[in-house]
Each structure stands twice: as structure tokens, then as C-alpha cells.
Amino acid sequence: MPPAVERDDAAPEVQLILVDSHNHTGSGDLLSALMATSASIKCCRNLTDAEQSLQDNVKNILLIPVDDTVYNTFTRLQTRDLLTGAGNRQHFYRTLQDELGSLQTGRGLALMMLDIDNFSAFNSQYGHDIGDRLVKLLCQRLELCDNKNHLSRIGNDEFTLIIKASTDQIRSATRQAIEHIVELLLPAYQIDEHDVHLHCSIGIAVAPEQGMEFETLIHCANTARLRAKQLRGHSYAFYDPLRDLDDNNRGIRLEPELWYALQRQQFRLFYQPRICLNTRRIIGAEALIRWEHPVRGMISPDEFIPISEKSGLIVPIGYWVIEQVGQDMKVLKQAGLREHIGVNLSFRQFQDGYLASTIERLIQQHQIDTSMLEFELTETALFRDESHVVSCMRSLGKLGVEFSLDDFGTGYSSFSMLQKLPISTLKIDKSFVKGIGKSTSDEEIVRTIISLARNLNKKIIAEGVETLEQLNFLRAHHCQMAQGYYFSRPVPLVQFLQLLDSPSAFASL
Q1: Is 482:262 a contact under the CB 8 Å cutoff?
Q2: What is the DSSP secondary-structure string of 488-509?
Q3: DSSP notation for 235-260
Q4: Which CA distances in Å does 273 have to 96, 343, 400, 499?
Q5: Please, what is the Cα angle at 168 between 167 and 169, to 5 degrees?
């Protein structure tokens, strides 16, 4: 091993002389950037001036001729990402500020922020060198995007693009650009022997709609990108102030409105039919809640149920659903329906110690036909407080209520649990049904669940059926019932009654 070299902690004395014969405007920037590394800096117009500027006590002299080549190289190093050649973070900030500052009336700007889904997991599996190569390939594809401006790399796998158009065309122009981006990103990346398929998420904020401050626009685009990540595949989302509030702000804002909605009867029940795959007739339904907001229109449960769960409002809302289903059952029974209506019970509702007694009171008060009532539980609810759940289920079971296990296969159900609880029906989760025709493992899971239900003498329902291929597969493996968009979306009671009144509606399926 070579001997250690003693170094002086003090910086060496260096005199830096820039010879700028044309007085380039970049000299000042270059001086500022190098001041931290030089003890003495001087900018001269020619060599004669430089010689006169030499300091007698400095032995190390660095003479730099400043011309267009040097200045352009320096500018590129300041503004370009070294890995991909795209603009770097500094370039992005400056460009976005300039674009917003020059945005004229009637013109719009869309900031797109894009990153790779699960990129950290990819790096962990293949290594950072291959990760860098993937980022370079992604950047090369983004460079081909139509109508883009100022592609920049602002993070490990994060890129930004700017789209400009008139204010009335900015969203459509952005969607066209995204469609082109998705086409560019769909093919697999060829890296050595690896054939890599990865998805990207895109968030978009629009100026002047979301404001003209670049910090605000960046925050909005990043927030929308996080919402896009909740979707599968290549996905994008425009910033929506009503949907992209953080969880705390969303809860604070919507919680009082939920109380108001309950008091003013703004909730509505929709019904999605269950189809017997042998007779091709409706043999029941699942009741699904919607919120008819006076300003925002119909709101899906994905937006307000999580807030209801956190705040505890799901308990009174759940009781309203049972009461309303009981009233609708009387109409459905008159229309000829005799099979079960499924009602969802969440784990939060089981935390109410009076759940069973309150439901029993509602059944008696509204004369609900329990032979048509079925409560759908998730595996999460079963495992939160097993003894309490079992007690509630047995109490309600004595009243004639049946139970189904929702999203079966995604949790931790065991044979002992299925035997211990009074569960009559298993519902195959839609994520497995979606894989039919695409994933042999998903198909095997579906076959196994159907076989398990048959061996345990339980009914079986497949959720999320959307294609004829899925339907034929389920029939071929003797699945009893199915529901999904292929048959019908959830519909209001009046439309559901019309479906009941048309016995041949599904005969050709």
C-alpha cells in the first residue's frame, strides 16, 4: 500500500484569470460559479491585461479563454441532466417560471409530472446500473412525444413536460399528448437479457386554472400524480381540488357534509343484479350506496366511505342502509324477487357494541323479511375482533339473516374460520376474475375457490365480470352466480325493477 500523503488543509493559492475578448454575458455567471474554488479571480479583455493582473505571490495560475464554446459548454453543464441529457431541476424551475411569466391571456399551460411505478423495487431487484439504463431509455421515448416543451428530469425517475395551448384546448391537447406518451411507453424495455414491462403515473396541473405560481402548480401536479398511482397500468390524473385534498383536510371538509347528507336524505341506494349462470335470470342483488350531492352530483362510495370509516359516521349510515333496503325489499318482493339482497358491513360497524341489537330492532320495526337479507363481510372485519364478530353473526343468524364473505381470496381466511362462522356464500374477488384469459395463476385461483365452495357446500358468486371470455370460463367451471358490468352496472331501484320485469334481458348471454 502506498504511504499516506500529507495534505495541507488550507486551499492552494490559485489565481484564476478569464480572458474574455468579446465581453460575453456568461462571464459573470462563470465567475460566480467558480468563486468558491479560487482565491483570486480576474476577468480581462486580452492577454496584456491578464499579464498585468498576475499576482507576484501566487504560483498557481489558471488562464481560461472565454469564447462561445466554453460558455455553451458551461451553460449545458448548468442546465442539463448528466445521465439523460434532459433539462435538470434548475432548468425546470427557471423554465417553468419563464413560461408562466410570459403566458398571455387566452393561453393555457399544463405541467405534467411523470414517474415510474415501483421503481425502487426495480432498482432493488436489478441494481442501480440497470435502473439508470432504464431511465435513459424512458427519457429517449419521452423525447419523441408530440407537442411537448422542455422535458426535464427532476428526480431519480421523475420527469416533467410542459404543454401549451389555448385555454379552451389545453386539456384536450394534454390528453392527446398523454395518449402519445402511453403509446411510446407501452412496449417492453430491452435491457441485456431482461424484457422489462413497467408502468408510469402522470399528474397534471393546469395554469391559469390552478393558479400562476410555479410552487402551486408543482404541488398540484405532484398531488394528482399520487392519485393516478391508485390506478392500474399507465395512468394519469388532472388535479381536482375536491378529490386531491390530503386525508386530513378531506375529512375535515367532508365530515360535516356527511352528517348533513344523512339528515337531509341525500344518500341513494343502487342495486347491481346477481345472475344465475344456469338459468340466466336475476336471483338477487347487492345494495350499493351513493351520495347525491347538491353541488357535485352523484359521488361514488370510494370517496366518502373511507372518511365515514375514520369518523365513525359509517355506523349511522350503515343503519340507514339496512332500513332503506328493508323498505325496498317490500317493493322487490311484490315484483317477484325472492332471493337475497346483499348489504355490506364494515369492520368499523362491528366496533359498535350495539350492532346486533340495533339491527334486530330495525328488522322488527320495519318488518324486514330476513329470508331476503344477506350481510356481506370482508375478511378484514372477521379478524379485527373474532369473538365479537362471531357473537354478532350468531345472534343475527338466529333471525334468519345469511352472510357472505366478500373479496374472498385477498385476505387470510382459513378452513377453520369458514367452518366456525355461519357463512353461506363466498364471493370471488374481481381482481382474480379480471385475470381470466390473461393470467394462468388467477384462473387457477378461481377454479380452486369454486371447488372449495362446492366441497364446503357453500354458494359461490364471481364479482366484476366484464367480458364474455370471463363468463364462459366461469360457466365451464360451474360457478353458480355472477355480477358485473357485463350484465349491468349498479342502477337505481326503478331501473332494477325494469330489469326484473324483463325476464329475457339476460337470456342471450
Answers
A1: no
A2: ---EEHHHHHHHHT-TTTTTT-
A3: EEEE--TTT-S-HHHHHHHHHHHHHH
A4: 51, 13, 22, 9
A5: 90
Query: By the 8 A CB rule, do 430 and 453 touch?
Result: no
CB contact set of 401 (below 8 Å; sequence gap of 6+): 370, 373, 374, 375
Q: 228: helix, coil or strand?
A: helix
In this prediction, residue 211 has a pLDDT band, given cuts at 50, 70 and 90, of: confident
Give the whole-angstrom CA distance, residue 490 versus residue 34: 67
Q: Quote the CA–CA distance of 110 and 447 in Å, as a whole number.
A: 47
pLDDT of residue 273: 95
Q: What is the mean pLDDT of residues 309-313?
A: 77
> What is the number of helices (H) and of strands (E) in the chain?
19, 20
- Predicted model pTM: 0.54
Q: What is the pLDDT of residues 144-158, one digit of tens each?
A: 887 777 899 988 889
Contacts (Cβ under 8 Å, ≥6 apart) of 91: 79, 80, 150, 152
Q: Are 141 and 184 in contact (CB under 8 A)?
A: yes
Residue 9: what pLDDT? Answer: 44
Q: How many CB atoms lie under 10 A from the CB of residue 87?
A: 21
- Is the bond into 208 cis (omega within 30 degrees of 0)? yes
| Phi, psi (deg, nearest 5) at residue 305 | -65, -45
Q: β-pairing, 373-378 with 341-345?
A: parallel
Distance in angstroms between the alpha carbons of the first and the last residue of the chain = 80
Please say whether the beta carbons of 361 and 391 come within 8 A: no
